[in-house]
Amino acid sequence: MRFLIPVILCVLAGCSDSMVSSDPARNNPLQPKGTHDIEEFKGDREVVQPKIRVTNPVTGPLEAFEPMKQRIAQFPIEQSMNLFHALEGRYPKDHDEFMQRIIKENKMQLPQPAKGFAYQYDVANHTLVVVRETADTK
User: Is 13 a member of any domain?
Assistant: First the structure.
């Protein structure tokens, strides 16, 4: 009880404001880190399909995590691409226009890909793909 009274007084006095950082990323440590690092797809790396393969019923949710994260990352990109196509009558002409008009204008943050994987934009097919990184690109 004697420890509870100082805590209550501290909260009522406003001491907790000094614990809030001016850096928004430090104020919510449970927020997953995002990325907008998307390279142009050249066709020289293996594209990873987001297929869920559960081999063990106990670890199934862990096995499904990365493919589901990939699908969730691709969904807003697809929506933005469809909206862009509906408004402009075309898809972004290159990687730079994709980054500017789809990613930056919509302030998109994609979840960090798993270690050894990267996001790339396939200009020819107008899609975001996840590729396996090669040893020379790490």
Answer: no
Query: CA-CA distance, 55 to 65, in Å (whole number)?
Result: 13
Spatial contact of 16 and 10, defined as CB atoms under 8 Å apart:
yes
| pLDDT tens, N- to C-terminus, the chain (138 residues) | 566 566 555 555 555 445 555 555 555 555 556 676 888 888 888 887 777 778 888 888 877 887 787 787 788 889 999 999 999 999 999 999 999 999 999 888 888 888 888 888 999 999 888 888 876 555
pTM: 0.64
Pairing of strands 38-40, 117-122: parallel
Number of domains in the chain: 1
Domain that holds residue 52: 33-132
Q: Would 137 be classed as within a structural domain?
A: no
